[in-house]
Amino acid sequence: MEDRTARDVVQAGAFVQACRKVGLKRLVLPSFDYDLTDEEAVIRFYGEALGRQREAALISKRSKRAHLEEAQNDKRHSGGKRAFGERGRKRVEDPDGTWRTVPAVPEDQAKSERELIREAARRILAGDSLRGICLNWNEAGHRAPRGGRWTTQTLRRMLLSPRLVGLREHRGQLLEAASRPSWSGRRGRRSGPS
């Protein structure tokens, strides 16, 4: 289909030129049989690509607007990996074929992770180093958010995360919200440990 060939009219032009360069004279798609020697057919191909480009731009605009509204309404980001200290959610398939959403980790694991966050904050305030904390945590078998070993970069990024103090970040900007709930586990809400 045209939208799989090019979603940008400039790319469509480059595609047609590449086809012509190797001697390809016909482009047969389910929607139309394009004769690349006929300028009218080539312009039709460009028009289809331009239509797909416009459609993709509209979808992107709507998606960005929806994400901004969610952020302004203090709703959690719907994608990405589970944050350290949160239960997160994952989809599982039941034996009968139905899908449901369940917590990604047990509450006791999320609770112990939140305690580790508090411990790290206390230790940093007391003058300990990120390296010292990482060494201790790796020796104790505590896993970083993605399951690997703790590094100073991972720990620093986690401790400076706006979510730990209940702030919502959207496209690099911190947003103000009317309410900042605590670690209540309420769906759609995000905040940091108390």
What does this structure look like?
The chain is mainly α and 194 residues long. It folds into 2 domains: 2-58, no CATH class; 65-194, no CATH class. Helices cover 46% and strands 11% of the residues. It contains 6 helices and 6 strands; from the N terminus they run ααββαββαααββ. The chain has helices spanning 2-5, 9-21, 39-72, 107-125, 130-140, 152-159; strands at 26-28, 33-35, 89-93, 99-103, 168-170, 173-175. The strands form 3 sheets. It has a two-stranded antiparallel ribbon with strand order 1-2. A hairpin with a 4-residue loop joins β1 and β2. The longest helix has 34 residues, at 39-72. The radius of gyration is 25 Å and the shape is elongated. The termini are far apart.
Q: Unreliable runs, pLDDT <50, ≥5 residues?
A: 178-194
Helix content: 40-55%
Number of helices: 6
State mean pLDDT (0 to 100 scale): 81
Major sheet strand order: 1-2
CA-atom Rg in angstroms = 25 Å
Bulk shape: elongated
Q: How large is the share of residues in beta strands?
A: 5-15%
- Compute the number of strand runs: 6
Look at the helices and sheets and give the structural class: mainly alpha
Series of secondary-structure elements, N-terminal to C-terminal: HHEEHEEHHHEE
Separation of the first and last Cα atoms? 54 Å
Largest sheet: 2 strands, antiparallel
What does the oligomeric state look like here? single chain
**How many separate structural domains?**
2
Quick recap of the structure?
The protein has 2 domains: 2-58, no CATH class; 65-194, no CATH class. The chain is built from 6 helices and 6 strands, in the order ααββαββαααββ. The chain has helices at 2-5, 9-21, 39-72, 107-125, 130-140, 152-159, and strands at residues 26-28, 33-35, 89-93, 99-103, 168-170, 173-175.
